[in-house]
Amino acid sequence: MTSKLNSSTMIVGAAALLMLSAVQASAQTSTHKSAAAKTAAAPAAAPASTAINYGAPIPGVCVFSNEGALGASSVGKAAATRLQQLRAQVSAELSGEQASLQEDFKAFQAKRASLTQDQIQAQGQPLEERAQALNQKATQRNRELEYTAQHARVRIEQAMEPLVRAVFEERHCAILLSGDSVMAANPAMDVTGAVVTRLNATLSTITFDRETPPAQAQQQ
């Protein structure tokens, strides 16, 4: 019976850690993407103290930063804001359940000495089940947030694709390099700003709620 109680203690602790890690992982992912987008938005930028002497622009060679466009565009910012709201909702939901579970577990621990073995089993088992359910919910919510973010990104990229092609043709580009991979390039070759301007004019915002990934995606 002692092993049962120890198992319950461990599961409650694991639930709390998993819930926090799920929310924090999602928040950190967003933070890293946001930082990458801001950096990529100006792929040719250099520290203020060190000016770069660029060579002449190479005819036919253009540079486009997908992350930079997502981070600088109005719709990209709207998506980031909405995702923050959804993460806050999930955090509040899980934190509330975690606090309730921990309080009930403390109450159980406080009276355990006065309980019979059967009572310990009867009252400890539901706590274990609630802890396991919280673990599962935290994992599910994190998957939902990741899927929602990916879906929102796909929607924006689909709207951006024809704009990139149009700018590519208008600038007479022969090759389009990823600004997210190029360390530095003459700003005259960067078409990111032109794409962002057009994207802002065609799609300035986006709305969505937390989505449940398809069963196949959840199994991966």
Coarse structural class: mainly alpha
**DSSP helix count?**
6
State the end-to-end distance: 37 Å
- In quaternary terms, these chains amount to single chain
Number of strands: 2
If strands are numbered along the chain, what order do they take across the biggest sheet? 1-2
Question: Whole-number average pLDDT?
Answer: 84
What does this protein look like?
By secondary structure, the protein is mainly alpha-helical. The protein has one domain (2-44, 56-219). It is built from 6 helices and 2 strands, in the order αβαααβαα. The protein has a two-stranded parallel sheet with strand order 1-2. The relative contact order is 0.20.
Main features:
elongated; 220 residues; mainly alpha; single chain; 2 strands; two-stranded parallel sheet; disordered N terminus; 70% helix
Structure at a glance:
This protein is mainly alpha-helical and 220 residues long. The protein contains six helices and two strands; from the N terminus they run αβαααβαα.
Give a topology summary.
Elements lengths: L1 H40 L19 E4 L1 H7 L1 H38 L5 H54 L4 E4 L13 H11 L12 H5 L1
Parallel strand pairs: 1-2
Helix pairs in contact: 1-2, 1-3, 1-4, 2-3, 2-5, 3-4, 4-5
